[in-house]
Amino acid sequence: MELLRTPGEMRAWREAHPASLGLTPTMGYLHEGHLALVQRSLAENERSAASIFVNPAQFGPNEDFERYPRDEERDLRLLRELGVDAVYLPGVEAMYPEGYQTYVTVEGLSQGLEGGSRPVHFRGVATIVTKLLVAVRPDRAYFGKKDAQQLRVIRRLARDLDLPGEIVGCETVREADGLAMSSRNAYLTPEQRAAAVVLSRALAEGQARFAEGVRSAEVLRLIVSGTVGSEPLAELDYVSVADSETLAEIEGDIEGVALLSLAARLGAVRLIDNVTLGEGG
Ligand code: PAF
User: Global pTM?
Assistant: First the structure.
């Protein structure tokens, strides 16, 4: 497994390895959700690369960039064991050298939901993903559906900037009790971890009521917020029922496919999750 630390090293490796390539971009501290993306990449491409980069540009000034969990040695061992061919792990100075001033903004899709609570987040995500796709030039790049808005922002930027390669969305991997896997779960105390199951439980309730025929977006939002509100350790940031493609909030009844999503805090830990209502996903 080759380790590449600069865009130049990455590009040179790609030029020397023209076979079909899958890329799994990550911020490290890998969990089963990341490994499922890597496994899919390994199954669908002749070669696979992963990137590990905790991207400062996607964290707001009061967010957890400094304390974001990191364990490079363990991550590299896991990727080696799976059979990954190359890992791109640039330093901050390689990605954002002195004088850096170019950013990618996906306008409409970045604005609501996570963008409403985290104003610089998607500009940072769009910028780093563009840089990764340009340096690695994968045939396919793999992202989790847990970050539903991120996936849509990335699909949009790849289309709008005519970036080659397919953006592949992969199902959310969950713990046995339903909690969506996330590197941030590592911050939870045992009590918060037990309480965090309320996020997936609330979404499952919304899904069940939708299956029973409830179509009012407002009623579904109330069902979900009521369930989250019943857990004293959880503080709801938002619950959204939005058009699955445009992410525009639905005001009346759901007619096509909708994304039911939420963000909540358990102490200082902010978690997100979502499910799809209707066909597709
Ligand atoms: O989902 C993540 O881990 C990050 O947002 C990504 C896509 C690797 C960009 O930094």
Answer: 0.97
